[in-house]
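Interim report, section 4.2 (structural modelling).
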Amino acid sequence: MLLSDVSTNNSVLRRFHLDPPLLGGLLLLAAAGLVIIYSASGQDIGMIWRQLTRLAVSFGVMLLLAQVAPETLMRWTKLIFGIGLVMLIAVLILGVTGKGAQRWLSIAGIRFQPSELMKLAVPMMVAWYLAEKSLPPRPGHLLLAGLLALIPTLLIVKQPDLGTALLIAGSGFFVLLFAGLQWRIIGAATLLAAPLGWLMWEFGMHNYQRQRVLTFLNPENDPLGAGYHIIQSKIAIGSGGIYGKGWLNGTQSHLEFLPERHTDFIFAVFSEEFGLMGIVFLLCLYLFIVLRGLYIANQAQDTFSRLLAGGLTMTFLIYVFVNIGMVSGLLPVVGVPLPLISYGGSSMVTLMAAFGMLMSIHTHRKLLKN
Amino acid sequence: MKRRVMHLKNPERERHLFSVRAVVVSIFSLLLMAILLGRMAHLQILQHDLYTTLSTNNRVNVQPLPPPRGLIYDRNGVLLAQNLPTYSLEIVQERVEDMESTLADIASLIEISDEDIERFEQEIKRRRRFEAVPLRFRLSDEEVAMIAVNNHRLIGVEITSTLTRHYPLGPLTVHSVGYVGRINEKELRSLDPSNYASTNYVGKTGVEKSHETLLHGQVGYQRVETNARGRILRVLDRTSPVPGQNLYLNIDVALQRTAEEAFKGERGALVAISPKTGAVLSLVSIPTYDPNLFVNGIPLATYQTLSESPDQPLFNRALRGQYPPGSTTKPFVGLAGLELHKINAWDSIVCPGWYSLKGDDHRYRDWKKSGHGVVSLHHAIIESCDVYFYDLSLSLGIDNISNYLSQFGFGRKTEIDIGGESGGLMPTREWKRRVRKEPWFPGETLITGIGQGFNLATPLQLASATATLAAGGKRMKPLVVRTVEDPVSQVHNVLPPLQLSEVEVKDPGNWRRIERAMTAVVHSPKGTARRISHGLDYTIAGKTGTAQVFTIAQDAKYKADELAKRLHDHALFIAFAPSNDPEIAVALIVENGGSGSAVAAPIARIVIDSYMQGIRE
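Predicted structure of the assembly:
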């Protein structure tokens, strides 16, 4: 079986606490990313080298975290979350502004994005909090666990960085879901979403965020301004057809119509050049990784590991869905990269750290007595 | 702590709960992937054609290619309008490393004014970095050479040539050929936007305007692939423009020049027409101006000098100048009298030098104070007897006069193939009632009969009427353009003469009678134009005319030397030759020239001589 645990047979990978199916899937994704970045960058080999460096660092971080046993992670959770929270507040007070948002913190000359840390710290914290409670959680615990996710989310919304906030809220939500969040509460929340959404629109959003939502609803309104990204991206995808225009032959990207083509909108380049066939392959790969993650979560031996693995896996899924959804015009443009494909650094390190944790959870299981 | 103990963790139950949730979430994940896949299939299969089109439109730009404008020649192939390359110096911003030193380099080679630099710096901000921005226009050949020699160190500096309309003969033919100018906003609305997509000039007057469609040609296109910033990457395909048609005019430049010189600097106009075909052989309006000034936009000061000059050089007198025709009307009124049997050729009256209507003591004076004595129609035309025509006009009545004269084209446009002509005025009772709110008075009939009433005619109308008279009533459409030549196939397409109408006569002999009288105007010893008959080896039929600019009081004597030149009479002359088989009909006016016989007739002689000599060769 594809999803079954085959790593037991491979002693080398086993020794380094790596999970071969997951590793294989991730390497395949990274390779696909390099191939499409080469095309999107206009065959800039320098960019490939820089991306390779980032991949090496990220896989290194993954390898490192795979060695850390889940118990150790659990011990460090409170501290990591606390540091993350302090830094988030610090960012709001003295952070560096980049691209119109305050996301960066400069520590000893190194720019650092605390929200990246929170992508890991929030599911860890919620999982840690719920791990010692009896599940499904009682309303009081639920409320507190929800707050643990909500506070950092709001701090990040304030930066403002909607994409990351969405990912962090999502990770918290999925940990709760795995912990047994009652369906009726989900139903009620869904019903409450509409009036809450209105309140957000009126009081909780910056003008440029409202503009993004409006543009999302009708991109053709502003074809050369705010809607330009979505229109050009849809043109790239649609004109790719079933088989695509072929590698290096995408006219939308090579003639520079497509903005941010090697970062957030790289999926459009991929779709234009490889068509629906390529997309099926890519989506299958993502789905495989998600299902493998869920399998690992299900195999985990303690509640903390289970919840953390489930939450991290679903964060990855949100990444994929939000990015592809926004590039194809299903969702508003919120600035979420396509995991392992998009050119760029900090989010990839976090992502691979999460996979390192997953591998650790899977490979540090204590052998059950037969 | 105790409460918590009551809720003991149940690992087995929690594991089961998690497994259920994991299955649900897996299904949820599958669902999300299915949504994405569905979305992609929607875009890439169902809407594939739409987005393919949009993608093609994105990158493929259609660029119009301007057609070269047709050339204009005179009837003998002398070039009147051509397209000359003019050179401009352009700079591509992104190729220049140090703009300031490049500009200094250029300024050391050719003259660059501060305005040039200022305009250039303004424009370079608005243009994209890879676009060429002009720094200097209209470079001389020497300047082009200076730049070309130093080209190796002027990176990013280019010399480009564009075709600009040029009129080699300048002022000589401007009143017929006209000129082109930059398309203005009003013209932009009426022009076909696709055909004029890359055309900067459009005909403003004359042949350039009236034959715009033929001269312009058909725009070409090239499809180019561009990137998002508009830079052209390659040409995909190309449809060449169809060049405009070349035109050969009926105008004879040699005759035109002779005519212009014959005016000796006097203001006036002359039109020469071939009676058989309607071909306009010469169209003179003096003073004239240089059309080349208008092509690239005339400087305001120059334009003001031209437009405010009292000599009105911009005014096309031949087409638009409306003058009282004076005695040149008489042959036409005489023909009406013969045709309507109001007179016979041999009927005579006694001219005492004045005429008066019954019950009115106003004396209508003859130009000859002592009178012409006994005169028939023949003599009345030869000597230009006013009294005879007062009498004839009275018996014809205004209705007959205007009806008959309008058959020769008086009071309506000649339908010449270039625009801008005026219609003149042939008064009628109805016209007077409508415009002047007054009834027609008999006295007005008298002065209409000698061309001094309300009637106004353009030199072109007079020439056309004279040609009609010369051609025995065949009124031809005056044509400036003779041949259309396709520059590609070189096929010449001669425009056929077009008869507009015919003046019907009951007795064709009447044509002969008028022609004989007009020939006698030149060739008989008593004729008013007898001075021009000297040395003629063919016969000219003519009629002098003098149009009053200034009304002289009763019994006062017209003393030319006491009046300001601008109040002098206009001198007119109409003629055709040879009388028995006319090849050319001429009408001309010399503004404030004085008498038709002394000033206008000699000009006609020179023109007709030149033309007759031309056809004999």
